[in-house]
Specification:
Layout: H1 5-45, H2 47-64, H3 68-84, H4 90-117, H5 122-147, H6 151-174, H7 183-196, H8 218-246, H9 249-280, H10 292-314, H11 316-323, H12 328-357, H13 361-386, H14 389-411
Helix pairs in contact: 1-2, 1-6, 1-9, 2-5, 2-8, 2-9, 3-4, 3-5, 3-8, 3-9, 4-5, 5-7, 6-7, 8-9, 8-12, 8-13, 8-14, 9-12, 10-12, 11-12, 12-14, 13-14
Amino acid sequence: MSSDPTTAAATSRSGVASAAILSTVGIGVQGATKLLATVVIGRVFGTEVLGQSSALLSLGVFAALLWPTAAGNTASRSLAIALRAARSDTAVTRLLGASMLLSSLVLAAVTVPVALAWGNGPGSVVGGVAVVVGYGLYCYARGAQLGYDRPRRVATWDGLTSLLTLGLLVLACVTRAEPFVLLPLGIGYAVFAVACWPRGAATSGDDAVAGSEPTRGVLRFAAWNVLAGLTTNGLLQLSMISAQVTTTPHDAGVYAAAFSLATPASMVGQAVAQVVVPAFAHRGAASSLRAPRTLRFVIGFGAVTAVLFGLVALLADWYLPLFYPDEGAAAVADLRYLVLGVWVFTMSLVPAALLLAAGRSRQVALASVTGFVVGVALMAALAPAAGVAAGSTGFLVGSAVNLVAVVALGLRRTAVRPEPETASAPDGPALDVVVPHPHEAREGRATDRDDDHRE
């Protein structure tokens, strides 16, 4: 590690920036692929099939929030800490890997009756299961690789599997395999998971003296992260599911057109947040919004995304009909309303990621429950009169409550407990940072964190 703190900090910031860019590019490619898939499905197979497919895709993302996304966030943080301290992560990866396989079986079993209840045939059910399982494994493997500071590898496999998905989708369209249109996406996600599955970072020589990364508290941290994920990310998927189950197939298809173009925008925040967790996992007080540089980073992120999302909304009446000739004009208002909610949602992701990096997933979860409850209640109350707009309204208001909650937590002053410095790897990767003073080694009291292994 560099002996010059200024130089090391500058290198770290540059490493985080490059990792964020690569992560955004990779997840952007996946988002574009998903968008193209929905466009092709809508054009080739019609509005009703588009609505059903979009609902199953939303189910896949929502199901991932029930464990896989949390496991990925936990792996991202735990593996980054183990890598920096030169400790073996084998025990952690085995534990999280086993939990992932079990959750995949459970989620697959639950998907079948849900998909059938929505009126899908056997082929569509198979595609839905493939998306639910494949996307969950993808989320976990992606988080683990970012924990290892391998954003380039992640971006590469995002690109390769996107090409595979599009190739298989073309084949499905040419053969008119309508029931299996979601299978290409599921296969693409599964291939990524196999290629990027965490197999443990090698430790040898002096590194082995550091021992193994402890597993105590890992599943608890992930469990709180499940609640945090559901209450912050779940509302967006519920807005599409709400449209599917409370309106006509045609209205749901029109809403799906808007939804398919609004959701890729949310991936910008998700990509940056995925990098923030491992990058700030060992920064102590620097992960607080009270740190000037961190606050400037969040404000700058908000300004940039406000411009980007504003353009998405402003130009909607021009590009929507290009993607969806039949539904485009009718979906413009839905898209603009959704984009506002997506921007508020995106703004909440980075402050929440900073709290997760500090090990405070319990606080994120408990604080954001109110937003989730408010959002779902609004969806249910407004659905009879407002139709598809009920989902967008619930999503917007719930996301606003979540944003206020995580920002308030990030700005809160917390007591800091002195601790000895942990061992650090010499000349670590780009995510490595200057070892903080012992009094800044970990932010917050023991009760603030969910990963305290010394219970």
